[in-house]
Specification:
The chain is α+β, with helices and mostly antiparallel strands. The protein has 4 helices and 7 strands, in the order ααββββαβββα. Helix content is 34%, strand content 27%.
Length: 169
């Protein structure tokens, strides 16, 4: 029996711009040699993927198929989280002001969800300090085209950070 890919679920669950944007992001990730791993534990029976590059996390994607717990209702119709690597690659990277504003608008503040980040941490994101930030520093709910451009840039920054760290070891 064949296992469905994320593209199958995008086509079945999402519609309109959400579907188009999700397909575009997944194509970008695949073109950049990212691996898609289905979630385990709490996320095992949900449409949740861990996106990896060279065995390091880049981001996480959740497609809300409305068969979810009340805690996930806000993640409609799909959500992307930045990685939780604790890397400092987002601290002072020279990003243009438009991209910084998008990133800052999507800082993921701790919601005391029961994860191991509560009560959140102090993080510097592109030169601006935030407090009470979730371990996944940014969360993008139903990203539009401009937000998707920012997500791609964040993925590029993290990918370059991974490559830099590999070459240093």
């Amino acid at each position: 029996m064949f296992e469905k890919k994320i593209e199958d679920f995008i086509g079945e669950v999402l519609i309109g711009d959400a579907q188009k944007n999700a397909f575009e992001l997944v194509a970008y990730l695949r073109a950049n040699e990212m691996l898609f791993e289905r979630g385990k534990g709490y996320w095992e029976n949900k449409l949740y993927w861990l996106i990896k590059y060279k065995d390091e996390y880049l981001c996480f994607i959740f497609i809300n198929d409305s068969k979810v717990h009340a805690l996930e209702e806000k993640f409609v119709p799909w959500t992307i989280w930045s990685d939780d690597s604790e890397c400092d690659c987002f601290e002072d990277y020279p990003l243009d002001e438009r991209m910084k504003e998008i990133a800052w608008k999507n800082v993921d503040f701790c919601a005391h969800c029961g994860g191991n980040c509560s009560p959140g941490k102090r993080k510097i994101i592109f030169g601006k300090e935030f407090r009470n930030v979730c371990r996944t520093a940014m969360r993008f709910d139903n990203p539009d085209v401009n937000t998707l451009d920012c997500v791609k840039k964040l993925i590029e920054i993290r990918k370059n950070d991974i490559l830099k760290n590999i070459s240093c070891t």
